[in-house]
Every structure is written in structure tokens, then in C-alpha cells.
Amino acid sequence: MSTLTATRSRRRDQRPAWDEEPSFLGKSVKALFLLVYAAAIIVPLWAVLATSLATEDALVRSGGDMIFLPTDISLQAYREILSGGAVTKSLLFTLMLTAVGTAISLVLTVGAAYGLSRPGSVWHRKMLTAILVTLLFAPGMYPSYLVVQDLGLLNDMWALILPVCFSAWNLIVLRTFFMTSVPGELIDAAKIDGAGEFRTLFKVVLPMSKAILAVIGLFYAVGYWNTYFLAVLYTPGLETKPIQVLIQQWLIASTGPAGQDAAAAAAISSGMENAPAASLKMAAVVCTIIPIVIMYPFIQKHFTKAVITGAIKG
What we know:
Keywords: Cell membrane, Membrane, Transmembrane, Transmembrane helix, Transport. The protein is mostly helical.
């Protein structure tokens, strides 16, 4: 009993003098807010998942296009989605876009950040200033479109990668990490041992930067996976569209009036007539969520470490 009391006393003593212990009412309000916030996220996701697993009879009994408690569970919608139709092609295209784009972005960002982090780099201050200016004065949509058009990239996959393959913000974050978290003594020791810049980067700097690289890679991957605006702007005539664009067109076409919209919806769902339309659409939505959900647990430890490091070292 005395040990428990002493432990509680130490925990109270560890609280800063200016940080008063919250009252029961304050804790209750915070808990209620977090509960409502969590419910606002979980309930729609659960409805999407439940509808994707529902049978046509269950949807008819529910009297709508959404269901919260499926009595009969079926994977027919997922079998139809992944059977090789338009949705499958769109998913594979988006996976390829994400993999290629993330790899290119990481190579460019790492190279530029390491070069700008070295004090002896040629024109590194001028180049850093020019990059910072892009954070303050972003190019407009029309000039960007003209550049992509002049490069001949309209309706090409590279139009979804090259305009956004380099992030000034990620560059600044990674450069700051290299300068503050990688000891200069290690780099000097590597140079004394005869290592060049590339060997120093790959053998010394990058192994110590796994956490921040995982976080920046996740940021890039999520951005490419959720590509929508650039696809609508630069690739309206692309035969295979990113999954986000395909789902948006599918949802709008299936709820629009008969005619062209109905024909577009039928073209997307061609070969998927054995599952309810609502289940097919929700299954497609779930398929867009799964890759990020699978990726995050492997990056979570690096993400937490990078956030803590950034908060401490500013």
C-alpha cells in the first residue's frame, strides 16, 4: 500500500508546477470529445465495410444502399472487383504509379537534401533560397498546365509524377535532419578513411536516417495513391485511370440520370453483374484503403521516432 502511494506521489511531483491536474469534469469532456471524434471516423468506415460484405437480399431488407449489420456475409463483390475488370486495372495502375513515383521522389529528395546539408556544396545557399521561394510563391494552375502541355505529357502517366515528384517541404525536413541528427564527426571519419560522397551517403547517412526516410516515403506514397486533381487536370483521356478518379466517376455515373451516365457506370461495372451495385462500389472503396492500412503498421515505429526527434530538435 505504501509503495503504491509513493508511486502516485512521484507521478504527481513529476507534473510541472504550472500544469494543474485536470478536474474530473475536464477529463470527462475530453473523453467525450475523443469518443465522438472516433465514432465519426469508425462508423462510416464500418458502414462501408459492412455494405461491401452484404448480399443483395440483405440490402433489400435494409431498404437502402447502406447497411450497418450484415446478416448474410458474402465476398462476391471482392471477387468481382478483382476479376480483371476496369477496377482491377485501375488498382494495378495506381500501385505502379505509387511505387514509381515514391521511388523517384525519394531519390531526388535524398540527393538534394544531402547536397544542401553539406556546407561546402557549390551554391548551396542560393539553391536553398530558390527552393524556399517556391514555398511562398507557388505556381498557378494555368502555368503548370502549359508546362505539362509543352512537355508533351498530357494524358501520360508521367504527368502524375513529374510535376509533384519533388517537395520543397520534405526537402527542408530531410536536410534539417541530416544537419542535426547525423554527427559531423562520423562524416569526417568516413572521409578520412577515403570514402567519397556517395559512399558516405549510402554507408553512413542513410542507415542513420531510416525513421525520417520511412515517414517521408509514407507522405509521398499517400500523395501518389490519392492522386485525383492532377489526374482530372492532366490525364482526362487516359484509358486506365487512377483508382480515386475511377471510383468518383463510378459513383457519379451510377447516381446520375439515364443515358450517358448510365452507360459510363455500365462500362466500369462490365463483367461484375453477379454482385449488388452498392456492394461493388463499397468494395472498391475498401480496396483503396487496404494498401495504406497494411503499410502503416510497418512504418508506425519509424513515424513515432521521427516525430519525437523532430519535436525535440526543432
